Each structure stands twice: as C-alpha cells, then as structure tokens.
Amino acid sequence: KISKSKMKTFSPKKTNSRSLNLKNSNDNQQSIKNKNKISNKDEPKVVYVPNITTNLDNININIIQKPQPKVCQFCGKIFKKNADLERHERTHTGDKPYKCDKPDCNKAFATKCSLEYHTVTHLGKMKRAVCPQCSGLFATTSSMKVHMRQHTGEKPFKCPICGDAFRTSGHLHTHIIIHERKKKRK
C-alpha cells in the first residue's frame, strides 16, 4: 500500500480517447499514454489511473516503481527472478554447487533437480548404463550415448546458419538463440 505522501494529486486539463494530459500543482505537463501506463524504457514506472471523467476536481495517481529486470551478464537474457538468473548463469560459468554425498561418487550438478535425478541411480531402481571408456554410470542408455560423444568427438547437430557442430540438440538450440539475438540487435 502506498502512503499518502507518495501519492500525487493532479487536476485534469484535457482528455481524449488516446491520451490524458494532466496538470499538477506546479503547472508541469504530464502525458499518460493509453490511460494506464507509461511505456518509456528510460523511466521504469507504472502509473495506474482510475476511471476518469472530465468533471472530477482532483485525481489520485499511484506511481509504482517496477522491479529492475535481472539480466544475464554473459548473454543478455532477461529474468524476472534472481534465482532463475543465478541458475541460468551456471550454464555459462560451469558452476555445479549441488554435490552428490554418496561415498566414491564425485559428481556435481548445476541444479538441485539434476542432483535428485542422479541420486536415484544410487538406489538401483533405474536401469544403469556404463560407459565402456571411463566406467561412468548413467541412468539410461540414451544418456550414456550422448556422453560417449565426449570421447569420440562426434558432433551430429550442425547449425544451419554458421555450420558449427554440437554434441546435443540442446546445445545447438542454445547456439541458434544467440544468432537470433544478434540479428535483433542490428
């Protein structure tokens, strides 16, 4: 709730269906486009204007600061929550704070859900696949096959834009998004 000291009182000067020009006590002009919000990127403010008729003497308008967007310092992707940004940035940094606590297992993961999925492999309830080169354990044969590409160097997923190749379709998808962002900036 906004206190009375943060509320501003305006007197209506002119109205039409597109915009509303208001005059405050200091005679400074302000324009509110589309009646209920400002779409100026330089000033992150939302203005709420109640139903207005021209015969009102005073109008109270609540000006509320929008929360600052959380932007990835590596790729510029925008997030609403800090936790989502932190999780995303681990894809760039390689940070894996979630470590398996089982003896003789030195695996670590970027997300808590990945660690939880991994711990099931220790219970023996899932079919395990063993890498023939490094003896790594995998929950499924398909995940082991993707892992094998690290050993073989196979990169079957090629970028149609630049020709770069990737081990997984997910890595290719992330790469294509970078091309799309570069195209939007131009």
The profile of the biggest β sheet is: 5 strands, antiparallel
Q: Name the structural class.
A: alpha+beta
Ends: how far apart? 42 Å
Radius of gyration: 27 Å
Number of strands: 13
Principal-axes geometry comes out as: flat
Q: How much of the sequence is in beta strands?
A: 15-25%
Could you give the order of the helices and strands?
EEEEEEEHEEHEEHEEH
In percent, how helical is the residue content? 25-40%
Strand order of the largest sheet: 3-2-1-5-4
- Low-pLDDT segments: 1-41
Keywords: Metal-binding, Repeat, Zinc, Zinc-finger
Region (Disordered): 1-39
Protein name: Zinc finger protein
Biased composition (Low complexity): 23-33
Structure overview:
A hairpin with a 6-residue loop joins β10 and β11. The two termini are 42 Å apart. With 186 residues, the chain is of the alpha+beta class. The protein has a five-stranded antiparallel sheet, with no helix packed on it. The chain has a two-stranded antiparallel ribbon with strand order 6-7. A two-stranded antiparallel sheet has the order 8-9. It has four helices and 13 strands. Helix content is 28%, strand content 25%. The protein has a domain of 62 residues. InterPro entries: Znf_C2H2_sf, Znf_C2H2_type. It comes from Sipha flava (yellow sugarcane aphid). GO terms for molecular function: zinc ion binding. Keywords: Metal-binding, Repeat, Zinc, Zinc-finger.
Task: Tell me briefly what this model is.
Residues 23-33 have a biased composition (Low complexity). One of its GO terms (molecular function) is zinc ion binding. The protein is an alpha+beta fold and 186 residues long.
